[in-house]
Design brief:
The protein has a domain of 28 residues. The chain has 2 helices and 4 strands, in the order H-E-E-H-E-E. Helix content is 40%, strand content 22%.
């Protein structure tokens, strides 16, 4: 079972909701990885692509990841396989 920290999810949704309209217009069905402390976000056609970009800048950060236009979310500290 994946345990998500409520603060990361809450802050991630706050940031995503501010960006939602613009992201859905230009990047629908792509992925966005949000670094919740800074609010900076990284886009990719795949989850791996978005996370790779995010991890280059913030290698030890936790990210809120969502597929733009979908409600499924995942928060990562480190990569893992399901």
């Amino acid at each position: 079972m994946i345990k998500l920290k409520p603060k990361i999810v809450h802050r991630g949704f706050q940031i995503y909701n501010k960006l939602k309209r613009a992201l859905e217009a230009e990047h629908y069905r792509e992925y966005v990885a949000i670094e919740v402390k800074s609010g900076e976000y990284f886009l990719g056609r795949t989850m791996d692509e978005a996370l790779n970009l995010a991890e280059r800048k913030y290698p030890k950060a936790k990210f809120f990841v969502v597929r733009i236009g979908d409600l499924a979310t995942i928060s990562f500290k480190n990569r893992f396989s399901l």
